[in-house]
Amino acid sequence: GFDRDRTTVITLTAPTVPATARNVFYHRLVRALADVPGVAHVGGSMNPPLVGTLHGDLVLTHAGVAAPPGAPVVAQGSDVTPGWLEAYGLRIVAGRGFDDRDTLNAQPAMIVNEAVVRRMFPGEQLIGTPLLMTFRSQEFGDIPIGVKTVVGIAGDAVFRSMRSPAEPTLYTPLAQRSDPMLWTYFYITVQA
């Protein structure tokens, strides 16, 4: 589901940039790379394919509905900048990708993949639907994260292993994170 042609992933670390300033710093880097001649698409991610994992799972339910025990989970995804999906050649099959509208002052947004629709919300039209995102782990139990509106549905793609089928995956706008970024690693994907 990803287009590997002409795509490069750059790993960087910014330990000297304060955690409260990293989000702005990462977005500035992505915008600067977008202006380089020959770059077709560029985007950044906190958790790119084939690199990291989520610590715990996410459960999606309709807003106002508590996550039931045994609900299907989303075990992969990432906070991304505008342009990240395009840099991987990942297509949006419904709705839209992230852009400059997805800020801290905007309605919280998410993009889900087709596997989320098939396994968790079969037959539903999710574009414009507010969903409750709940973090689930054995250590901490269920912790509601908040309601985010589905703005797009992405095509399926492998995420953790080339040998595994496409699993439910979600993407959220990095620009909508307000917390200090404690991890110093960031991944920028460039497609020429």
Walk me through the topology.
Elements: E1 7-13, H1 22-34, E2 41-45, E3 57-62, E4 76-80, H2 84-87, E5 92-95, E6 109-113, H3 114-120, E7 130-137, E8 141-154, E9 169-173, E10 185-191
Could you give a quick summary of the protein structure above?
With 192 residues, this protein is mostly beta strands.
Give helix % range. Answer: 10-25%
**What is the general shape?**
globular
- Beta-strand content bin: 25-35%
Please outline the major beta sheet.
Answer: 7 strands, mixed
Number of helices: 3
Rg is 16 Å
- First-to-last CA distance: 18 Å
Mean pLDDT: 91
Work out the number of β strands: 10
Instruction: Note the run of SSEs as H and E.
Output: EHEEEHEEHEEEE
Uncertain spans: none
Structural class: mainly beta
Walk me through the structure.
The structure is a single chain. With 192 residues, the chain is mainly beta. The protein contains 3 helices and 10 strands. The protein has helices spanning 22-34, 84-87, 114-120, and strands at residues 7-13, 41-45, 57-62, 76-80, 92-95, 109-113, 130-137, 141-154, 169-173, 185-191. Strands 3, 4, 5, 6, 7, 8 and 9 form a 7-stranded mixed beta sheet that branches. β7 (130-137) and β8 form a beta hairpin. The chain is globular, with a radius of gyration of 16 Å. The model has no long low-confidence stretch (mean pLDDT 91).
